[in-house]
What we know:
By secondary structure, this protein is mainly alpha-helical.
Amino acid sequence: MKSFKVIIPLLFFLPFFLGCGQSPEKKFETHMSKGQEYLKASNFKEASIEFKNAVQTDKMNALGHYNLGLAYLGMGGAAGLQNAFRELAQATELRPDLVDAQLKMGELLVLSRDFVNARKKAEDVLVKAPGNTDARVLLAAALAGQKNFSRALQVINEALKADPENLKVHMAAAGIHLANGDFKSAEGRLRQAIVLKPDSVDARLQLSNIYVFQGRIAEAEGEIKKAAEAQPKSPAPLVALANLYMRTKRTELAEKTLMAMVELTPERPEPYMMLAKFHLSVGRPEEAIKVYKAGIEKITEGAALRKALAELLLDTNNVKDASEQIDGILGKNQNDPHGLYLRGRLRLKEKKATEAAEDLKQFVKAEPASPFGRYYLGLAHEATGNPESARSEFSEAIKLFPGFDGARLALAAHLMALGDLKLAMEETAKVLEKNRRNPAANLIAGDISLRLRKPREAKGFFDNIVRVAPKDPRGYSRLALVYQMQGDWKRAVAELEKSLAIEPGQPEALALIVSLEISRKEGKKAIGRVIDYMGKYPDNPAYPLLLGRIHMLSRNLDEAEAAFKKAIEIKDDIPQAYFDLGNLYYGRGSFEEAIRRYNEAIRKDPRQSAPHMMLGVLYEKQGDSKEAEAHYKKVLEINPRFAPALNNLAWLYCENNGNIDVALSLAETAKGQRPEDPYVSDTLGWIYYKKKAYLKAVSLLRESLEKAPDNPQIRYHLGMAYLGKGDKRLARQELSRSLEINAKYPGADEARAALKEMK
């Protein structure tokens, strides 16, 4: 038994000792050999793994870095090209004589439009090898990129003279002619290329592109078909043919061509991708889903198809099936970045914002240049009440992809919610400049115009929505708000009826109709309408919630309480119902019950600032400054520009011997948000009084008094500021008037004491 126990560890460690016996040189050669096999088979991902292992074994081997660069080039995509450039640069640093690596770097520089450095790469090679054809082609491409077409043509013609049967040179010459707008010469050069190599797919497809640009569709189709005949196993002609059919609106032929491509290479994911995208482009998402599923069944390694399918299922709100696909992706690799991205999106849809943010953070860490990852992470931050981080991610998404309208509109909506209407409109306008018909952009622009009290301007935006999306109920609901602002009740109700006809169960439109009826003293009619909807939609908590608010307005508090509790009974995770109950109990003076309900609202949705604001007000009313301060700070974490919280927190600091400079900063920010608010001006003026800046204090407090002349506390503050300034007559006048208005207001005793001292 003892010998058995000894043998097991020895067997366990045997592979380790065997591995240690292999020299680093042998390991390097093994990985390089396997990598070369994968590279020849165009299996670039596996090749990259082998070459990575080779480079880890010998970091100073230039050929290892060079081959790893080639594998990354084959993988393509932005990340692949960036990695390729890095590895090729490392290879040339170790061995400057690696000409092909230098030229490949030059080609990547042309792709990134860095023509100056691309030209330098070509010229460096030509110094050492003046007759190098590939270097001449690179130099000509760089010169053409710099718009130096005469010199580019001179260089390429020299290359043609030296190597007249080189297809690559003819193709490059055609490209330069095209860039120079000389279609005739480009066509001639491609014709010569085809004479040299009749089965050249690239030459015929490039020629077909010229014909398409010139509107010679039949000739373009002919060249593509000849390319397909010349290379029947190449998918490229079928791709070009399908694109041509799509461009010319021959969708049936496009579909047949793409299906033929699937049959040609059933083991490759790309044809399935293209066929699925075709179905999406013609409005057939269900067919696209079928194509993805068929591909997943036929391809053993169908990760790319599974990811594309999961994304489509999320886009079409098929959450259950998307979850199954995502589980499959992460089941194979729990750290798969794209799998985490998809799960993050899924969790956003499931209202699991905290978990979504964690997944999306991991994805962005792995793929920092992904604008979509940044966008969805911004949404997750917004949902978890982290507005500054949300704004940062939306801005980064736009920086990475300036044409990303979704991110720009998310930023605009975010700015609008924070009250920064000017910046919000600027971002929205950038989307509308590209597409005046964009419904989402028109909606935000219209909402901003309403907030700015510009109903005529808002109407123009909402009219656009109705024209572009006549079945979207929001256009009609928003027009109702315009007419309400203009006092045209009849037209407002008519628009709301249109909205409800499209989507009968929507509470928002009903709430607007009810508010109009209440404003016209038709409370019974409004209550009857809501009760009718409660009967039609008994499982929708929005209607008893609305009924409770109507009863609150008419001070029927018992009926309101019953309605709010009914909403919670239907669905117990509605934060607004708890908040409304909190307001009801606050109005009754039942402060402990109000606190409990506000805290329940926060537990249901931590993103809400309103319950924290009310708790701050309530605790301040009870004299609990510490708790009040904590809740005002929480409001400002959620919305740093919320003026009431800024003002109230500034007041607490000012009155409770807090940091007066912090109080000043808060109050000035509040003033910037609400320049016309008399109570903000009062707070700011009183802070300046405390800082002995009496002239500034008097100016602000007089401004405040003009808007609230019957507020005794403002008069008290102004009186004290006059006293500090040395104007006893005006001080006596304001302090006396404050006591005439209310002899028991907070500060009345101090006013009497000041008056007594002035006698």
